[in-house]
Write a structure and sequence with these properties.
- Pfam families: Fer2, Fer2_2.
- This is Aldehyde dehydrogenase iron-sulfur subunit PaoA.
- A hairpin with a 2-residue loop joins strand 3 and strand 4.
- The mean pLDDT is 90.
- Helices cover 37% and strands 12% of the residues.
- A five-stranded mixed sheet has the order 2-1-5-3-4.
- The chain is elongated, with a radius of gyration of 26 Å.
- It has two domains: 80 residues, Roll (Ubiquitin-like (UB roll)); 91 residues, Orthogonal Bundle (DNA polymerase, domain 1), CATH 1.10.150.
């Protein structure tokens, strides 16, 4: 029985041909109706965004972040990590701050949503927006909309008596202290490192000494 002789070049060619043939074979097997891609499941959803009722028909997999940015063109809400880790997309939904990148738009039927565009205008800034300007609470500005929305909700949380991990007494109304503000804002990352100025801005609106 003779020995099989094959060169290294021939071996590489054979391996490449096999690698190319596999997906082609799989495609050929799936040329029937089963292989046809199904259209996305669509659903209508209505919610109030910055005081205006919006009705959209969306792929049910659309995140609230993409609905705001791509469908309503509210691009002040930033897409940062898209994994709920940076806080750049923070918006206020039914009075609570959330990361819209982590939730589906269709889950918020009838919700009241406030984005940075709904807090104030260039000619009538929200007090928190004005404080960020006064205290230079931003550098590149990418995280700023999420920082401001989160800061507004933080003061509402304290006013509502919701404790945090650093609240001394979980049964008593928490106080707006620098320690409380730092803890509650810890989910909003500023890659420029403007944290001290951000705390100064929030403390100013809260009426406390930073």
């Amino acid at each position: 029985m003779g020995h099989l002789t094959i060169t290294r070049r021939e071996l590489l060619k054979a391996g490449a041909a096999t690698a190319l043939a596999a997906p082609l074979a799989a495609t050929a097997q799936g040329t029937g109706t089963d292989a046809a891609s199904s259209p996305p499941a669509m659903s209508k959803v209505s919610f109030e965004v910055n005081g205006k009722v919006e009705t959209l028909e969306l792929d049910t997999r659309t995140t609230l972040l993409d609905a705001l940015r791509e469908h309503l063109h509210l691009t002040g809400t930033k897409k940062g990590c898209d994994h709920g880790q940076c806080g750049a997309c923070t918006a206020i939904v039914d009075g609570r701050r959330i990361n819209p990148c982590l939730t589906l738009a269709v889950m918020h039927e009838g919700a009241r949503i406030t984005t940075i565009e709904g807090l104030g205008t260039p000619n009538a800034l929200h007090p928190m927006q004005a404080a960020f300007v006064e205290h230079d609470g931003f550098q590149c500005g990418y995280c700023t909309p999420g920082q401001i929305c989160s800061a507004v909700a933080v003061l509402d949380e304290i006013e509502a008596g919701i404790p945090s991990h650093v609240s001394a007494d979980l049964e008593a109304r928490p106080e707006a202290t620098v320690e409380e503000l730092r803890e509650r804002m810890s989910g909003n990352i500023c890659r420029c490192g403007a944290y001290s100025n951000i705390i100064d801005a929030i403390s100013d609106v809260a009426g406390i000494e930073a």
